[in-house]
Write a structure and sequence with these properties.
By secondary structure, this protein is an alpha+beta fold. The protein contains nine helices and 27 strands. The structure holds calcium ion (2 copies) and zinc ion (2 copies).
Length: 520
């Protein structure tokens, strides 16, 4: 014991001196190439390219608090523009958990875009890296929108690379809640979140994407690790049997329909089972007890698979139509938007993300069971860019069912977006039809749209909000268009105590087994 303390002191002093050396080096001062590639996961990729290098010391700070933020730096060459620089293991991206690092970067002139997801401002800086010299970059980001009362979550994340990196990139993109859903396995990111000092920024839950003979389904939280054997999964004959088995897992869990119209019919639950035009159920074993469905999946819902674009598309229109059709039949499945991100930086966690109603805004206090409860209540909105607050009368939140009490109902809609994200249109949907369309003027104000809308109807009606942009986001996000939507608020106008859908669900099919036995 006696020797430990002096040793520890010596180490602390040594590290402190090292740190001081970095701090005291002014801009452009010559530095020795002392970095140890074994310790830096990015440096090997830079050195392998054989280019001359310099050093970059960067910091990302939150403006008001001065806290170092997890974030991402996107590098583009000033010239030639089309040549993608390699600055580390994620090509032209550097990601940081600590918010301050020193990196080896190829010599050159760069545009650097510093971000922390769609809730924060975007910072653009021009830097010059000179051979053997140190360049400093200090970036200040500020929260651009107020999401208090909600936490952000992406409910479809594979992140098929080192789990430590999975935690870093999710934090760098500003997710509060990391939902691990890789194919048929369970991944637990919590040890990495702790080790990286990310607990104040993010919490995580263990889940999985389970592929069956009738589609892909995410579920979380999961503890039963029973899904790896394909033969077992595909021996489950019906969606009902599947739901029963998934729900054997201890506690409550969410079961989500992924990319309901996948290009491969086996991967999409609605393919061959839900009529594209009429939303009629065309499959005798169709099960409606799923909690939520992907109305937008950033990978499968691209207009053009070759040239990735994100946001509104003909596939999203079909998904909205399917979802509205189910809601009109009284099948109340929540709509969500996820990324399905497998690799980085080609696929970005958190673009889109969901906002779940929460008692706490502190990620370390978020209880996955509370997230599950909120999702079961459909108290969730989806966001590729804009953030929508939607409530009725005196603050009934998204997902609520309320009685009109013989009067009109007031819908409160508030749409916010960061300055680099456009909003062009806000629509109110009622029982699947467009009730109001509000064009929104170009602006970089925090609040783009705020209105109290009085509605009334002679029949029970569900309302939701859909927000889009025609205009692309600012560089480097020019392939993005805004897409955000809420879940419904259901209004019981005839005051019989519950919501009556306009097309009460009667799938109208005949059980084939009974039919074979000569049933009428
Ligand atoms: Ca269960
Ligand atoms: Ca009613
Ligand atoms: Zn899938
Ligand atoms: Zn997936």
């Amino acid at each position: 014991m006696k020797r430990v303390l002096p040793n520890l002191l010596l180490r602390v002093v040594f590290v402190a001196v090292l740190a001081l050396c970095w701090i005291l080096l002014p801009d452009g001062e010559v530095v020795s190439s002392s970095a140890n590639p074994a310790l830096d996961p990015d440096e090997r990729f830079v050195l392998e390219s054989g280019q001359a290098t310099g050093r970059l010391s960067f910091e990302i700070l939150e403006d008001k608090t001065g806290v170092h933020l997890p974030g991402r730096l996107f590098f583009a060459h000033k010239e030639p523009r089309d040549q993608v620089p390699i600055v580390g293991r994620f090509e032209n991206f550097l990601v940081t958990a600590s918010g301050r690092e020193v990196k080896t970067v190829p010599v050159g002139q760069y545009d650097v875009y510093i971000t922390r997801g769609t809730e924060y401002t975007l910072d653009h800086q021009e830097i010059s890296i000179k051979e053997g010299r140190l360049t400093h970059l200090t970036s200040t980001l500020s929260p651009a929108i107020d999401t208090s009362g909600f936490i952000s979550a992406d409910f479809h994340l594979h992140l098929q690379f080192a789990m430590r990196d999975g935690a870093i990139v999710s934090a760098a993109e500003g997710l509060d809640f990391l939902t691990a859903t890789d194919h048929n396995i369970l991944k637990d990111y919590s040890p990495y979140i702790s080790e990286l000092g990310l607990k104040r920024f993010m919490t995580s839950v263990v889940g999985s994407e389970i592929d069956t003979a009738f589609g892909h389904f995410n579920s979380f939280p999961l503890t039963d690790d029973r899904w790896q054997e394909r033969g077992y999964r595909h021996s489950i004959r019906t969606p009902r049997e599947f739901l029963r088995i998934v729900k054997e897992d201890p506690g409550d869990e969410i079961v989500q329909i992924n990319h309901p119209r996948f290009k491969n019919p086996k991967g999409g639950y609605f393919n061959l089972r839900l009529n594209r035009e009429t939303s009629q159920i065309e499959y005798p074993f169709f099960e409606t007890a799923f909690d939520q469905m992907e109305v937008y999946n950033a990978i499968t819902d691209r207009e053009d698979m070759e040239i990735p674009t994100y946001g509104p598309s003909s596939q999203v229109d079909q998904n909205l139509k399917d979802w509205f059709g189910l809601l009109n039949q009284g099948i109340a499945i929540a709509g969500v938007a996820n990324t399905d991100a497998h690799r980085y930086p080609g696929e970005l966690p958190g673009y889109p993300r969901n906002y779940v109603l929460s008692d706490t805004d502190k990620p370390w206090e978020v209880d996955p069971n509370q997230v599950v409860d909120a999702l079961k209540k459909k108290a969730v909105t989806a966001s590729l860019g804009p953030f929508i607050r939607f409530s009725a009368n005196d603050g009934k939140p998204v997902g609520s069912t309320l009685s009109s009490e013989g009067d009109s109902v007031t819908l409160h809609v508030n749409v916010q977006a960061a300055p680099w994200i456009p909003v062009d249109r806000v629509q109110i949907i009622a029982n699947g039809e467009v009730l109001h369309t509000f064009p929104v003027d170009a602006s970089s104000e925090r609040v783009r749209f705020r209105q109290a809308i009085r509605v009334q109807s002679g029949q029970d009606t569900w309302y939701l909000v859909l927000v889009t942009s025609e205009r692309p986001w600012k560089p480097p996000f020019t392939e993005f268009r805004s897409l955000a939507f809420t879940n419904p608020i259901w209004v019981d106008y005839d005051e019989n105590g519950y919501f009556d859908p306009i097309q009460p669900g009667d799938p109208g099919w005949v059980d084939p087994e009974e039919d074979q036995q000569g049933g009428s």
